[in-house]
Amino acid sequence: MTRIISYLFCILIVFFVFVSSEASADDIDFQIDMMQSHFERFSKELGASLSYKGFGPAEPLGVFGFDVGLEISAADIDEDSDFWERATEDSDMPGLIPIPKIYIKKGLPSKMDIGAIYSKVYDSNISLIGAELKYAIAEGSMTTAAIAVRGSYSRLLGVDQLDLDTYGLDLSISKGFFDMTPFGGVGAVWINSKPKSLPTGLNLDKEDITLLRFFAGTTFSLSSLNITADVEYTKIPIYSIKAGIIF
What CA–CA distance (Å, rounded) separates 11 from 161? Predict the structure, then answer.
């Protein structure tokens, strides 16, 4: 198990560096023929993609705990749809949008954790910040599961024509077995998508959208090193993996 976790960590680091420097997306740049129905569907997929991914075990870090690492998500969008073609500069968005992130989490008193992320999608005008606050309803033990509720927020940066914010609320459960901790959860994401600075002749209205979220995954632990893989469904499938150092 130790060797497997070490290999997973090395693979993740290489993959993160490759995606950050080589994988490309497209700039968000609304075309004049974009309609309100296109904007609504685009906002759902982009909002789901950029919503905060607070995946991991439900148990708290503890008042002195830190978790720092790298994370990457791949959002499985409908890249051939008319709304993505009308929402991007070159109509060249990949089927999987790679979203690499740096994250940090800190344990707080009263079974609470706070966290934040920053992301920049390579070769695109998409940047992202986000934050979370998690409260462990049950900390878990050798025989019982941990249960937590989490509130989260994310904001799109770098796109002149769009203000997009997401708010999330979810309930998760996890139970450790040896070096593995499976987890799962359900929640909701609220997306506020507001167009701005549009080209002459293009008129779009703000969209307020609510989506359900389902997620499940597993954390592999080796001393202070943790590798976590997760699959989420929020309108579209989103696949994530992260490596962190807990101390």
Answer: 36
* CA distances in angstroms from 118 to 102, 131, 208, 230, listed in the order given: 5, 9, 24, 19
The pLDDT value recorded for residue 32 is 92
Q: What is the pTM of this model?
A: 0.89
**Distances from the Cα of 140 to the Cαs of 20, 109, 196, in angstroms?**
36, 16, 47
Task: List, run by run, the mean pLDDT of 10-residue segments along the chain (247 residues).
Answer: 54 56 71 94 96 94 92 89 88 82 95 96 92 95 93 96 97 93 97 94 95 96 87 94 88
Burial of 43 (0-12, 13-18, 19+ CB in 10 A): buried
Give the model's pLDDT for residue 103.
96
Q: What angle do CA 79, 27, 151 make, to 5 degrees?
A: 80
Task: Say what the pLDDT of residue 225 is.
Answer: 85
Question: How many domains does the chain fold into?
Answer: 1
How far apart CA 218 and CA 202 sit, in angstroms, is 45
| Domain residue limits at 39 | 2-246
CA dihedral 130, 136, 140, 144 (to 10 degrees): -110
Q: Which two tokens stand for residue 84?
A: 């993505």
Query: Distance between CA atoms of 213 and 185, rounded to whole angstroms?
Result: 8
Q: What is the CATH number of the domain that holds 117?
A: 2.40.160.20
**Which of 87, 92, 32 has its CA nearest to residue 207?**
87
- C-alpha 232/C-alpha 213 separation (Å) is 7
